[in-house]
């Protein structure tokens, strides 16, 4: 939605009012996004700036840049998870080839990958059992991102069983 609104407001012309308003709106969203990410962690602020600067083909081929809406939802999700958990650890954060963001938390027994997608969120969990075998799980939830709490709790070993819808 955010990107669509920015595209509509920026218009197709070069110097018209719609272009100026769209650029101002975009700059304002980016400034607020950077401020929000820095309030979570200075490292996150740097990572968000890096992701915002990606262009088409950042991988040397056809990778899409990370969308502003997806990145905004990601930062807001991290902010909510940090507020809910005083011992929150910032995940490894990477762009995907499709223009999404991947969040990756890893511990000796569990890993959790959460991916922001235009239509919602997906999670993949890995559990290493006492005998060294790996069990894999997956889940998804809507755009609100509230489903992330139960998956993050699973990663932290607060839930013994992988969450179900």
How does this model look, in words?
The chain is built from 5 helices and 5 strands, in the order ααααβββββα. Helices cover 42% and strands 21% of the residues. By secondary structure, it is α+β, with helices and mostly antiparallel strands. It has helices at residues 2-10, 17-40, 42-52, 68-84, 148-155, and strands spanning 92-95, 101-106, 110-117, 120-128, 134-141. β2 and β3 form a beta hairpin. α1 packs antiparallel against α2 and α2 runs antiparallel to α3 (42-52). A 5-stranded antiparallel beta sheet has the order 1-2-3-4-5.
Keywords:
disordered N terminus, 165 residues, single chain
List the helices and strands and how they pair.
Layout: H1 2-10, H2 17-40, H3 42-52, H4 68-84, E1 92-95, E2 101-106, E3 110-117, E4 120-128, E5 134-141, H5 148-155
Helix pairs in contact: 1-2, 2-3, 2-4
Short overview:
This protein is an alpha+beta fold and 165 residues long.
Number of strands: 5
The outline comes out as globular
H/E series: HHHHEEEEEH
Mean pLDDT across residues: 84
Measured by DSSP, the beta-strand proportion falls in 15-25%
Q: Measured on Cα atoms, how large is the radius of gyration?
A: 18 Å
């Amino acid at each position: 939605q955010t990107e669509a609104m920015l595209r509509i407001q920026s218009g197709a012309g070069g110097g018209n009012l719609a272009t100026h308003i769209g650029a101002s709106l975009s700059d304002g969203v980016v400034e607020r996004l950077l401020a929000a990410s820095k309030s979570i962690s200075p490292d996150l602020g740097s990572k968000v700036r890096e992701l915002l600067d990606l262009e088409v083909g950042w991988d040397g081929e056809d990778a899409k840049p990370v969308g502003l809406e997806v990145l905004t939802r990601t930062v807001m999700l991290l902010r909510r998870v940090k507020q809910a958990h005083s011992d929150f650890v910032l995940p490894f954060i990477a762009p995907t080839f499709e223009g999404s963001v991947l969040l990756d938390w890893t511990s000796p027994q569990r890993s959790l990958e959460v991916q922001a997608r235009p239509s919602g969120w997906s999670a993949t969990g890995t559990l290493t059992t006492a005998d060294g075998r790996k069990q894999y799980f997956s889940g998804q939830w809507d755009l609100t991102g509230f489903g992330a709490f139960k998956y993050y709790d699973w990663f932290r070993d607060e839930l013994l069983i992988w969450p179900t819808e």
